[in-house]
Amino acid sequence: MQKVYSDAKSALAGVLKDGMTIMSGGFGLCGIPETLIEAIRDSGVKNLTVISNNAGVDGVALGLLLETRQIRKMISSYVGENKIFAQQYLAGELELEFNPQGTLAERIRAGGAGIPAFFTKTGVGTIIAEGKEVRTFDGEEYVMERGLVADLAVVHAWKGDTEGNLIYRKTARNFNPMMATAAKVTVAEVEHLVEPGELNPDAIVTPGVYVKRIVHVKDARKHIEQRTNRKRAAA
Fold it and tell me: DSSP character for 71?
């Protein structure tokens, strides 16, 4: 099965549709599938539900899809770096399902593992628990959270082979591996693409069985979300 596509547009051809649910990997601006997100923007699909830890920043990553108003709903943990997000949400133009970060991660992991729901103490007694089932285990209350599954997952890997086996690097490992398992179709953009057998099997994080399509992104941009400079010491 040929998994490698020449560019992001062709890698997403036949997969995108209006109203679909998309998982987008990464943490802040680290490990984000930026090339694939730009292809989603260019496709013009709309009314999207996007599951992502955060919504990028203005003009970058998912911020691009907010600018074009292609996102109808965000399922997220942290959205504090995006002014457009705030404007659309406060104006009632964007729906938000807010999750504690660990709960979001576990909802995605559970979806990929075929677990429809689980119980957690996080959020008990807060608005997070409103409308959800609460049970008592060993004298403690727990709130039920549903696992998440998407139509499409777009992920970014540091290195991968043509069979779809993926390795992530450092912070970019956040959310990408679990999302790769929790969608009907997973498309990966890979910085370094090698032939089967060239990866150390012990280093592979996502087995190729989860990945349907791959695009090679040789010169992936590495954004700095908040640049902080320290004053130089006097000579």
Answer: E
Running DSSP on this structure, what letter comes out for residue 60?
B
Please name the amino acid found at residue 51: I
Report the b/e string of 72-104 with b at 16+ CB within 10 A: eebbbbbbebbebbeebbeeeebeeeebebebb
Where along the chain do its domains lie? 4-114+148-216
User: What are 118's two structure tokens?
Assistant: 């689980």
Q: Report percent pLDDT > 90 for the chain.
A: 83
pLDDT value, residue 235:
63
pTM: 0.92
b/e per residue, 117-143, with b = 16+ CB within 10 A? Answer: ebbbebbeeeebbeeeeeeeeeeeebb
- Write out pLDDT tens, residues 75-89: 999 887 788 999 999
Phi, psi of 150 (to 5 degrees): -115, 165
pLDDT at 16 over 80: yes
List, in sequence order, every residue forming a beta bridge with 21; answer none if it has no partner: 49
Q: What is the mean pLDDT of the chain?
A: 94
Strands (DSSP E) along the chain, which ranges? 4-5, 21-24, 48-51, 71-76, 95-98, 117-120, 134-137, 140-146, 150-161, 166-167, 183-194, 213-216
Helix, strand and coil percent figures for the chain, each rounded to 5: 25, 30, 45
What is the topology classification, in CATH, of domain 4-114+148-216?
A: Glutaconate Coenzyme A-transferase (3.40.1080)
